[in-house]
Amino acid sequence: MENHQSEDTHIKPCEYDPNVNQDELIMAQEKQIAEEIKANTSMIGSLQGLGSLAKEYSNDPVYSSKVRTLLPKFSNVRRTRPDGNCFLRGFIFAYLEYCIHHRDELTRFKKYLEGSKEELFEMGFPKFTTEDFHDMFMEVVNDLEGSGSVGRVEAVCNDAGTSDYLVVYLRLLISAHLQKNAEFFSFFIEGGRTVEEFCKQEVEPMYRECDHLHIVALTAAIGVGVRVMYLDRGEGAAVVSHDFPEDKEPIIHLLYRPGHYDILYKA
């Protein structure tokens, strides 16, 4: 699960009581953890040197060794809130940050966004709510066209209302791409579910973690290259990377640790 307990979170252990519904107790604990994470963690953190990651794993030989292989390639990291939306928050922050330095890409993205709303309508997404999410995204892009700065992107992505609207719209874009290409993606969905069922259960709801299919769909839909660096306990001394799509030069770099994504910056 992605709702990791932060260092400042203190959850009291509960003794077993046969008179208490244990499922409800677990749900209450999860809610408490989520609320404390929300209270203590920014949606997008400040820029940190990659040395902070090395320090974090100084007592873990496997992770520490792998982090050292990242140091020559990457200089900084931005932490994202571990609330199930971390991939999407990391993606949109890194992409908008790239766009303010590459205005041609901002123009291309704006044109894509303008046409995306009608496509969602044609696929049966509810007009009233979809339009609200779309309009907020357009408002952000138009604002960045005029006053684009890293500080402005930070402010936008850390404003709860705005950030959540952007995340929801990205989820709709992912869902639309998966459903448009259902014949292909159906082979990768487990549990006997249809692509539409998978989207309703795992893609469109907030706080649902993103997996490989989400990333494939989003990068293909928008036409943006993303490289994910996988920091885990897999074999080998180096951190394994994967590009989405494989034939596109990545402009966004994300660090994956089991259940969580942060933003990386090239050295």
TrEMBL record:
Site keyed Interacts with free ubiquitin: positions: Y230, D232, Y256, Y261
Enzyme class: hydrolase
Keyword terms: Hydrolase, Protease, Thiol protease, Ubl conjugation pathway
CDD domains per record: OTUB1
GO molecular function: cysteine-type deubiquitinase activity; ubiquitin binding
Cleaved signal peptide residues: none
Ranges where the OTU domain occurs: 75-267
GO BP terms in the entry: protein K48-linked deubiquitination; proteolysis
Active-site residues (renumbered): D83, C86, H260
EC number: 3.4.19.12
Pfam families: Peptidase_C65
UniProt entry tagged with the keyword Repeat: no
GO CC annotations, alphabetized: nucleus
Chemical reaction(s) catalysed: Thiol-dependent hydrolysis of ester, thioester, amide, peptide and isopeptide bonds formed by the C-terminal Gly of ubiquitin (a 76-residue protein attached to proteins as an intracellular targeting signal)
Protease recorded as keyword: yes
Similarity section: Belongs to the peptidase C65 family.
Protein name: Ubiquitin thioesterase
Species whose genome carries this gene: Cherax quadricarinatus (Australian red claw crayfish)
